[in-house]
Structure to design on (844 residues):
C-alpha cells in the first residue's frame, strides 16, 4: 500500500504545483485583457501565457490528478495492493518528461498556439512531442486500471466490481477512446509538419481529429468529481448511496455519450455538412441523462444522510447535513456551479444557438465555470479527503479548507458571470488587448474589471489550498484511517454482466463512432484534401509588429 | 439476474436495451439532421430531397475547386462579307420583300420612320438591312422587338426585305455623289459636326464619318446616315460608347464613339439629321433640304 500512496502523492503534487503556477498566469491574463494596467504589457507574452495556462490546466493538472486518483481508488476500493506499480512509475516519468518538454517550448516562446493547437498554426516540434509523451504516458495508466479490474474480476467471479473501481475503469476507457483523436493528430499531422517532413498541413482533418478528443476530455476531467459524488459524498455526509445501479448507469452513459459528440466544437467549421453537425449535437444533448440521474441520486443520498442525522420535514434534512465537512460543502457548491454552467452548455451545444456565442468570451466563461468551478472544487475536496490517508497525517485545518472552498466558489462566480455577459455582448475570446476607448468595448470594461476581482479571489483560494496541503503534509503523524467508500442502501450481491464490465458499451461506442466520425474523417482522404500552408508560431518575433 | 450474465447475447435485457436505444437514437437524429433540417427547414421547397441530403453530408455542387474563369466566346457578328453572303443579298426579291415588309413599315415607314427613335430604312443599302437582321436574329445586337421579328424571318426573307428597302426612293439620301461642304474637308471648319464628319480628328485617331457613311464615300455594311432620325443616331452612338451595342465587325464604331464627347455626338447627329444650321446654309444639296424636319421629331 505504501508504494501506491507514494505514487498517488507524487501525481497529486505535480498536479497541484502546476495548478498554482497556471493560476498565477490566469490572474495575470485577466489583468492583461482588462482596462486596468498590467505588468509586462506584451501581447506575445499574453499568447504564450494563455498557451501555458491552458496546456497546464487542461492536460497536466487533470491528467496527473486523475492518474493519482485512479491509483489510489484502485488500491483502496479493491482492498489489495495495486498491480503494475513499476509500470505506473514509468508512465509517471514519461508524462513528466513530456510536460517539461512542452513547457520549455512554450516558455521560450516557440509554441504560442493556445492549448487547442489548431492547425494551420504550427508550434515547435518540442511542444507537440511533449504533448504526445504526456498523453501517451497516460496510456500506461489506462492499462494499469483495466488490468487491475480484470484481475479482480477473474479472482472474484460473479461478484460485482466495487463501484469506485468500476467508475475509474470507465474513466480509463473513456480516456483511451478520447485520446486516440489527439494522438493521431499529433503523430500523423502536426509532428510530421513540425519536423519539416511535409510542406502543407491538413487543417480540417487535424481539427476534426482533435474534436474527437476535445469534448470527451471534458468528461474525463469530470469523472473524478462524479466518482466523488457517488462514492465519497454519501459517506462524508454520514449516510449511504441511494442506488449502486444508478451509479453504474451514470458512468456507462458518460462513457457512451462523451465520444460521438465532439463535432459540436466545429459547428462553425466549413469542412463538414450540417447533417453530421446536427447528429453530433443531438447526441451531445443526451448528457442530460447521466447528469440528471446524478443530481437525483446525490440529492437522494444526501437526504438519506440528513434524515439519519435527525433531519425532519420536507427540507429539514438539508440543515441537518454536516456542512462543516469539506466534501459535503464542496458538493453543494459544485452542484450550484454545475447547474449554472450546464444551462450555458445547452446553448453551446445547440446547433442553432451556438452561432450567437461562437468564439466569444461566453465559451471561455462557460468552461471555467463548469470545469474550473464545478469539477475542480471536487478535486480540492478529494484531495482533502484523501490527504490523511495517503500522507498518514490528519488534515490540519478544516476551517481553512472550508474558507478555501467558499473563496473558490465566489471567486469563480464573480469571474465567470460578467465574463458570460461580455461574451454575449460580443467580446471575442483569445484576444490579448482590447481598445476600451472604443464605444463598443467601453460597455464591457466594468464587467471585465469585476472579472479581474474574481480572478484575484481564485488566486488567493489556490494559495490557501497549497497552504492547507503543505501544512498537513508536514504535520505530525497520527493513526491512519483507511480510505472508505460509501455503501449503497441496498448493496448489490450480483449485477448483470452488462453493468459489471464494458464489452457491450465499448461495442456501442465503436458503432456510434463509425457512424458519427466515419464519413467526416474519411471524406478528407477521398473527397476533399484540405492541405494548406502552415502558419508558424515558433518565435515571439512572429507576433511582434502586428497591430 | 442469472440470465443476464453474458453481455454479448442480444436476448439479454441490457444488451437488447442498449442496442435498441442506440439504433433509435441514431435513426431519429439522422432523419432530423439529414432530411428535416436540410430539406424542410434550412433550404426551402425548391431543393429536391436527394440534393438536400447530399448537402447535409457535405457534398455540394459548388464543392469542386474553382477552375480558371472561361470568358464566353464572343464575336461581333456572324456576317462576313464573303462572295456567298453578297450573292445571297444580291439575289433578294424586292417584290416578295414588299409583302414581308408590311410589318416593318408600321414603325420604319415607307418613306421615313414613324418616330425619331426608329431608324428610317427607305433607301438603306441592302447589305446593311441584311446584316442587322442577322445580328438581331443571332443576338449579336440586342432588341426585344427586333430579335423576335428577325427570328421569324428566314435568310431568304431578310434578303428580300433588304432589297425592298434599298429600292425605296425618297427616304435616306444616297451616299455617293454629294458635294463637299463649303470650305472643303478641312480641320479648320468651325462647326464641330462638319469637322468630324468630313475630317475626323487625326490627333485622337478618329477617322471622318463620311469615309464610311457618306456623303461621298462608302464602306460595305455601313449605313447611309444622311437624313437619318436624330434621336436614333444619337442613341446608337451612346450605345456603341457604353458597350450596349457591339455588332460592329472591327469594333470601329465602339472605338470612335468611346472617344466622342456628348457635345460632339450631338453635333454629328445634327449634321446627319439635316438640322445643322451651318450645313443648311453652306450646302446647296437638295437632299439636305429635303431632310429638314420640323422641330420636335
Amino acid at each position: 500500500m505504501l508504494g501506491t500512496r507514494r505514487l498517488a502523492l507524487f501525481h497529486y503534487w505535480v498536479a497541484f504545483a502546476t495548478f498554482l503556477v497556471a493560476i498565477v498566469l490566469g490572474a495575470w491574463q485577466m489583468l492583461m485583457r482588462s482596462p486596468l494596467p498590467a505588468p509586462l504589457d506584451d501581447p506575445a507574452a499574453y499568447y504564450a501565457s494563455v498557451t501555458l495556462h491552458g496546456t497546464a490546466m487542461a492536460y497536466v493538472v487533470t491528467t496527473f490528478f486523475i492518474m493519482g486518483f485512479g491509483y489510489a481508488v484502485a488500491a483502496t476500493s479493491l482492498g489489495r495492493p495495486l498491480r503494475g506499480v513499476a509500470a505506473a512509475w514509468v508512465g509517471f516519468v514519461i508524462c513528466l518528461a513530456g510536460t517539461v518538454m512542452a513547457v520549455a517550448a512554450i516558455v521560450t516562446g516557440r509554441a504560442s498556439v493556445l492549448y487547442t493547437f489548431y492547425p494551420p498554426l504550427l508550434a515547435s516540434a518540442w511542444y507537440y512531442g511533449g504533448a504526445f509523451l504526456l498523453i501517451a504516458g497516460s496510456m500506461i495508466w489506462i492499462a494499469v486500471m483495466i488490468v487491475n479490474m480484470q484481475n479482480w474480476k477473474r479472482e472474484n467471479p460473479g461478484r460485482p466490481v466495487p463501484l469506485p473501481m468500476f467508475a475509474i475503469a470507465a474513466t480509463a476507457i473513456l480516456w483511451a477512446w478520447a485520446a486516440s483523436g489527439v494522438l493521431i493528430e499529433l503523430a500523423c499531422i502536426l509532428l510530421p509538419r513540425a519536423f519539416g517532413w511535409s510542406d502543407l498541413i491538413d487543417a480540417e482533418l487535424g481539427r476534426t481529429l482533435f474534436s474527437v478528443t476535445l469534448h470527451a476530455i471534458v468528461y474525463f476531467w469530470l469523472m473524478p468529481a462524479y466518482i466523488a459524488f457517488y462514492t465519497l459524498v454519501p459517506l462524508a455526509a454520514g449516510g449511504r448511496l441511494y442506488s449502486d445501479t444508478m451509479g453504474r448507469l451514470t458512468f456507462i452513459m458518460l462513457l457512451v455519450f462523451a465520444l460521438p459528440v465532439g463535432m459540436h466544437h466545429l459547428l462553425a467549421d466549413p469542412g463538414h455538412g450540417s447533417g453530421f453537425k446536427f447528429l453530433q449535437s443531438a447526441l451531445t444533448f443526451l448528457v442530460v441523462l447521466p447528469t440528471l440521474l446524478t443530481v437525483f441520486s446525490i440529492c437522494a443520498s444526501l437526504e438519506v444522510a440528513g434524515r439519519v442525522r435527525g433531519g425532519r420535514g420536507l427540507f429539514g434534512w438539508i440543515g441537518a447535513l454536516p456542512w462543516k465537512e469539506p466534501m459535503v460543502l464542496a458538493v453543494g457548491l459544485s452542484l450550484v456551479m454545475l447547474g449554472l454552467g450546464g444551462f450555458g452548455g445547452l446553448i453551446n451545444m445547440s446547433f442553432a444557438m451556438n452561432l450567437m456565442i461562437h468564439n466569444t468570451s461566453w465559451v471561455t466563461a462557460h468552461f471555467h465555470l463548469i470545469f474550473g468551478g464545478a469539477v475542480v472544487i471536487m478535486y480540492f475536496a478529494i484531495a482533502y479527503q484523501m490527504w490523511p490517508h495517503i500522507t498518514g497525517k490528519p488534515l490540519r485545518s478544516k476551517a481553512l479548507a472550508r474558507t478555501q472552498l467558499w473563496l473558490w466558489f465566489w471567486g469563480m462566480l464573480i469571474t465567470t458571470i460578467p465574463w458570460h455577459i461580455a461574451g454575449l455582448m460580443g467580446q471575442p475570446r483569445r484576444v490579448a488587448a482590447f481598445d476600451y476607448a472604443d464605444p463598443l468595448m467601453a460597455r464591457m470594461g466594468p464587467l471585465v474589471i469585476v472579472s479581474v476581482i474574481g480572478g484575484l479571489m481564485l488566486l488567493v483560494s489556490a494559495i490557501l489550498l497549497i497552504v492547507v496541503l503543505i501544512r498537513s503534509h508536514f504535520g505530525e503523524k497520527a493513526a491512519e484511517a483507511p480510505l472508505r467508500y460509501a455503501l449503497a442502501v441496498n448493496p448489490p450481491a450480483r449485477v448483470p454482466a452488462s453493468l459489471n464490465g464494458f464489452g457491450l458499451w465499448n461495442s456501442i461506442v465503436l458503432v456510434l463512432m463509425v457512424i458519427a466520425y466515419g464519413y467526416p474523417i474519411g471524406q478528407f482522404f477521398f473527397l476533399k484534401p484540405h492541405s494548406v500552408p502552415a502558419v508558424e508560431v515558433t518565435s515571439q518575433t512572429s507576433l511582434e509588429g502586428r497591430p | 439476474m442469472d440470465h443476464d450474465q453474458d453481455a454479448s447475447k442480444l436476448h439479454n435485457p441490457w444488451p437488447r436495451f442498449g442496442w435498441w436505444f442506440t439504433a433509435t437514437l441514431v435513426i431519429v437524429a439522422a432523419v432530423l439532421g439529414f432530411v428535416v433540417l436540410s430539406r424542410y427547414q434550412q433550404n426551402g421547397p425548391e431543393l429536391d430531397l436527394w440534393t438536400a441530403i447530399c448537402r447535409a453530408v457535405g457534398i455540394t455542387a459548388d464543392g469542386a475547386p474553382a477552375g480558371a474563369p472561361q470568358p464566353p466566346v464572343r464575336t461581333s457578328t456572324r456576317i462576313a462579307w464573303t462572295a456567298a453572303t453578297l450573292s445571297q443579298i444580291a439575289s433578294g426579291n424586292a417584290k416578295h420583300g414588299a409583302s414581308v415588309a408590311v410589318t416593318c413599315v408600321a414603325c420604319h415607314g415607307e418613306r421615313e420612320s414613324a418616330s425619331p427613335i426608329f431608324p428610317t430604312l427607305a433607301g438603306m443599302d441592302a447589305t446593311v438591312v441584311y446584316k442587322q437582321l442577322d445580328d438581331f436574329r443571332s443576338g449579336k445586337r440586342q432588341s426585344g422587338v427586333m430579335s423576335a421579328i428577325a427570328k421569324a424571318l428566314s435568310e431568304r426573307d431578310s434578303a428580300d426585305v433588304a432589297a425592298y428597302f434599298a429600292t425605296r426612293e425618297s427616304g435616306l439620301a444616297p451616299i455617293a455623289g454629294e458635294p463637299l461642304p463649303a470650305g472643303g474637308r478641312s480641320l479648320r471648319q468651325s462647326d464641330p459636326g462638319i469637322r468630324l464628319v468630313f475630317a475626323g480628328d487625326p490627333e485622337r485617331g478618329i477617322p471622318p464619318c463620311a469615309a464610311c457613311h457618306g456623303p461621298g464615300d462608302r464602306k460595305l455594311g455601313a449605313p447611309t446616315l444622311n437624313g437619318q432620325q436624330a434621336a436614333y443616331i444619337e442613341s446608337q452612338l451612346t450605345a456603341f460608347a457604353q458597350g450596349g451595342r457591339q455588332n460592329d465587325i472591327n469594333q470601329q464604331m465602339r472605338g470612335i464613339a468611346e472617344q466622342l464627347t456628348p457635345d460632339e455626338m450631338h453635333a454629328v447627329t445634327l449634321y446627319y439629321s439635316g438640322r445643322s444650321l451651318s450645313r443648311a446654309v453652306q450646302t446647296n444639296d437638295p437632299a439636305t433640304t429635303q431632310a429638314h424636319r420640323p422641330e420636335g421629331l
Summary: Confidence is low (pLDDT under 50) at residues 277-297 of chain B. Chain B has three domains: 17-51, 77-171, 172-297. The longest helix of chain B spans residues 13-43.
